[in-house]
Structures are given as structure tokens and as C-alpha cells.
Amino acid sequence: MTLRVAGLQHHGVPGDVDANLAIITEAAHHAVEQGARLLVTPEMFVTGYNIGARLAPLAVAELVDRVARIAVEADIAIIAGLPEPHPDGGITNSLIAIDRDGTELLRYRKTHLFGDLDRSLFVPGDTLPPTFVLDDVTLSVLICYDVEFPEAVRAAALGGADAVIVPTAQMVPYAHIAERLIPVRAWENQLYIVYVNRVGTEEDLTYVGRSSIVSPEGVSLAALGPTETGLMIATIDPEAVERARRKNPYLADRRTDLY
After folding, report:
1. Which neighbouring-strand residues pair with 202?
2. N or C terminus: which one in the chain shows less Cβ crowding within 10 Å?
3. E-only strand ranges, the chain
4. How far apart are CA 162 and CA 3, in angstroms?
């Protein structure tokens, strides 16, 4: 089995949940028309990311139910970035994976908080995500800054992931992460990376776009530019992962007795 994935690069509407869910709904239908089985949004797309004090009132549990209704209505699985109230207080920068029948597949809270912005808004998650299976393809997830830590992606690879899905809100001056680091992460772990970014501005942030779906051999299969909005679509093929790991056996050749 293979899995056709669509990534939505968009600026969204900061602080307007209804508008952002409408954007997701339209993208979901367009993705289905192009044969996609999974739609991925950028980081914190449902509410907006860098919106300061406006965020807390928007971080309500019903956001998950609203995303699930879109998945069911459009008949597509969705991974969406959104805020989540933490049981112990505060807000987490989270994503939710919902199948097209409304089943929750995974919920993950960003573990690596970036700088004063993240730390002023969120509390960190304390566990890396497990893998989950969609149409016989094994997936894992990370959020933005998480992917910049090689250990996080390696953990997904060792856990059997064929692809790591990464909603992000990457901003100036870090375009090199999208351009150079993401292909390296895919190459060194022989898996797909689906890196889905924002464009435009929020307050003092300018997002760099450059979303991409990268193959296990570090090759870009689909990409969008620094200011484009729309969908990028590519197919995740577990057999390509197996071929890449035979050809480039980093995982098998590790010296775990040394490190």
C-alpha cells in the first residue's frame, strides 16, 4: 500500500478559528479531488501561532471535534496543528491526527519549545509520539523545532516510521532549515519527511514557506516556494523506504556499543 499526502501551505487568519477551519475544509476537498488520503496543516493553523494573549481563550477542547467533522465530511484524514488545554494548566502546542471516519489516531504535544515565543505561550509535552498506521503506512509526527533535533527523527526511524509528518511555523531567518536540514534528516534516516509551513506574517514574524515532501533518499518530491499558498502532494511508499535502507544502511551500521 501507498499513501498520498497533501500539505497545505497557507498564511491563515490569525485568531480567527472559523476562517481557518473554512480554509482547511476547502483544502480537504481539493486534496480529495487530487487523490490524497491525508491532509496536513501548518503548526497551530487552527487558531494562529504568534497571536499572544488572544490564544488562551481559543484553546478549547472542541477544536478537535471541529477538525474531526471536516475529516468526516470531506472523507479524508487530517493532521492539524492547534492549541490544547493541558490537564495541569497552561496550553500545549499540539497536533491531532483524525481519520476520515472521525477516529482519533494520535494526539501529540510539542516537546522542544523554541525560544521566548514558545515558552511564553506553551508548556512542553513530555513524551515523543508513538507511530500509527494509516492504510498500512507507518507514520510518526513532530512539530517544527522538534525536527531540528536528530535524536527525535532517529527515534521515529527506529520505531518503524515510513514518514515523519512535521507541521511547522518556520520564520525568517531560518529558511536554511527548510532548504538544507530537512533533506538531510530524510537522508540520514531513510524515511519521508512531510514538512508543512506557513507563509505571510503574524505580528513580528515573517514565515519562510518552502514546504516540501522529501523522499528517503533526500530528494524533494513536491514543494512550494517562499510565498505560495496551496497544496503540495506526493505519495509515501514503504517499499521505497526499504530500498533506501538497503542502499544506505545507516540504521543497520550504527555502533550502538559506542554511543
Report:
1. 205
2. C
3. 3-9, 38-40, 77-85, 91-98, 104-109, 132-134, 137-141, 163-167, 192-196, 201-202, 205-206, 212-214, 220-223, 230-236
4. 10
- Residue in this structure with the C-alpha cell 532549515, named with its chain if needed: 177
Matching residue, cell 510565498: 227
| 5 touches 196 (CB < 8 A) | no
Tens digits of residue pLDDT in 44-68: 999 999 999 999 999 999 999 999 9
Compute φ and ψ for 216, nearest 5 degrees.
Answer: -65, -10
The residue count of the chain comes to 259
For the record, the C-alpha cell of 44 comes out as: 497551530
- With cell 520505531, the residue in question is 159
What type of residue is 167?
A: P
Cell 476520515 identifies what position? 100
Write down the pLDDT at residue 88.
87
Q: Are 207 and 239 in contact (CB under 8 A)?
A: no
Percentage of the chain modeled with pLDDT above 70 = 100
For the stretch 182-219, pLDDT in tens is 999 999 999 999 999 999 999 999 999 999 999 999 99
The residues assigned a catalytic role are 43, 110, 144
User: Domain locations in the chain?
Assistant: 3-252
pTM of the model: 0.97
